[in-house]
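Pipeline run #58 for the internal structure catalog. This entry was flagged by the ingest filter as a single-chain record with no existing model, so it goes straight to prediction. Upstream metadata was stripped on purpose; only the residue string is passed forward. Reviewer on rotation: M.T. Logging verbosity set to normal.
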Amino acid sequence: MHNWFDRLKTGLRKTHTQIVHGLDEFFISKQDKATREEALETLFELLVQADVGVKTSEYLVDKVKSRIQKEDYSDAKIFKNILREEIFNILTATRENPKGTLENPLQSLADKKLPHVVVIVGVNGVGKTTTTGKLAFKSHLRGQKVVIGAADTFRAAAVEQLAVWAQRSKADMIRLKEGSDPASVAFETVKKASENNASICLIDTAGRLQNRQDLMQELAKIGRVIAKENPDAPHEVLLVLDATTGQNALQQARVFKEVVNITGLVLTKLDGTAKGGIAIAIAAELGVPIRYIGVGESVEDLEVFEAHEFVNALFSETNN
């Protein structure tokens, strides 16, 4: 069984090839005679191709330009180390979270009413239901009592999928008849979690297009209804994004952020894309912390996001 860092490294291999290997090939081709203009232009192109985005790519290029000495533009190691440090700085700028995280929900909630209520949101097809199930299972493994709410009431398959995860996690699951008001499911879930003294309450919502205002407003309603049962809830609203969609994921996040108070992001399917740079763009442009990243289908392939692990895996010399 590979450890998490090995799985992360494998998952980021395509992105590593795009950025880091691309820089290596550039410096080799220049035989230690790269000019400043050539090096910076190449860096910008590689970052954009990895879906770091124009704005964040320009920011990183400017940072590298301001830190590197003229004579070091032909030194691939120095160049990459500075880039690595600046990416790390972007990824750590949003890590502070006054409400605690799923990994340790009691950390800053000792004086608040449990359960720790987490609403999972996102568009169709990003892996919301799977993410909800994996988080439930991980909480169960930590000895926490979990209640799951199947608020995706329009897709029977999602409810059945959640039921399997609930069984694996020994969690109670609240489900109402197909087509029921999702806010009602959310309310009943929080109520059940409170009655059962659960530690974690996870609510899976229906996938929605960010351009459907009626569906987006439904999320706001869920938040209002939950607060009637627990005034502090929801403690977390996690937005699930599919890394393979690149810059579209960033646009989705912007729209969701306007409607609900997104407290954290879950970035899935990093293993299927060379666009892993989207994690950097999202951290730089949204100011919302990445909570979890996924690099595969198994429960072990979803883990708490740690900036140093991400950067070390991205720049690993053994990832070629």
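catalog note: DSSP finds twelve helices and eight strands in the chain.
catalog note: Residues 97-101, 104-111 have pLDDT under 50 and may be disordered.
status: ready for reviewer M.T.
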